[in-house]
Design goal:
Layout (H helix, E strand, L loop, with lengths): L1 H15 L2 H21 L11 H4 L5 H29 L1 H6 L5 H34 L4 H28 L3 H17 L9 H10 L16 H26 L2
């Protein structure tokens, strides 16, 4: 446990000292706010107007964009976690520490999840207060949506970290993570044109289907929690296997 926490503190300190991380986080936050106020969510069957057009004290349009935001933000945050360590040679030094590979993996995952969760809270909570001042915001729905977003943070971070571990260059890690998360996000868009069996699989894989229909609308579903937990455990297992394999080469 101490080893995992030490790795997590190391990762968080590196991100907080990185101007690039702040720029990406700020750009994603500004894009989300602009979409929420003016654009709404015009994609797929979940079309929702912006706040000014819809004139409803609801954050659903913002929640709808979160899965797509993590497609960019999670790989951008995690791309250097393992790939940069491999490129610079510092991974060998890290793995020479008296800690298990799974402790290093869990420490990096904890740091990535906390960073994404902090960004999500910084985006959602102040905006919820503004919307509540403009109308009657349902705080129960908001907190359910916020909780579901934290689950999305966990699964997105775990997948991005596993693919960073598989890459030798940060840019390759970012592209792999963005493509994988983008494929999962977009699978729901093709569900209605696929055969029933494939459509069911597409919905089962999509993070949007496990967020927008439940917690984003105020319903916490145990099936969605299991979906996120399964992705986290599978991605962490793959990450550990990859790191452990390099440790003994």
């Amino acid at each position: 446990m101490k080893g995992s926490l030490a790795i997590a503190r190391r990762e968080l300190a590196a991100w907080l000292d990185s101007p690039g991380a702040w720029v990406v986080a700020a750009a994603c936050a500004l894009a989300l706010h602009a979409a929420f106020w003016f654009l709404g969510y015009p994609i797929g069957e979940q079309r929702v107007p912006g706040l000014w057009e819809g004139r409803s004290a609801s954050l659903f349009a913002l929640f709808a964009w979160l899965p797509l935001a993590y497609v960019v933000l999670a790989p951008a945050l995690c791309m250097a976690s393992w790939a940069e360590e491999r490129r610079s040679g510092s991974e060998e030094l890290l793995l020479s520490w008296p800690i298990r590979a799974r402790a290093a993996v869990s420490g990096k995952f904890l740091a990535a999840w906390l960073a994404l969760a902090g960004w999500t809270s910084a985006v959602l909570v102040p905006l919820a207060c503004v919307v509540a001042a403009l109308g009657e915001l349902d705080w129960g729905v908001f907190w359910c949506g916020w909780s579901g977003a934290l689950c999305l943070c966990a699964s997105s971070a775990a997948i991005a970290l596993a693919l960073s571990s598989a890459a030798a260059e940060p840019l390759v890690a970012f592209l792999l993570g963005a493509l994988a998360l983008g494929a999962l996000w977009s699978s729901v868009l093709f569900a209605r044109v696929l055969a029933p069996a494939w459509a069911e699989l597409a919905l089962a894989l999509s993070p949007s289907a496990h967020y927008l229909e439940t917690s984003a609308r105020g319903l916490l579903d145990s099936g969605d929690l299991a979906w996120h937990a399964a992705w986290v455990l599978a991605a962490l297992a793959l990450n550990t296997w990859l790191v452990e394999g390099r440790r003994w080469r």
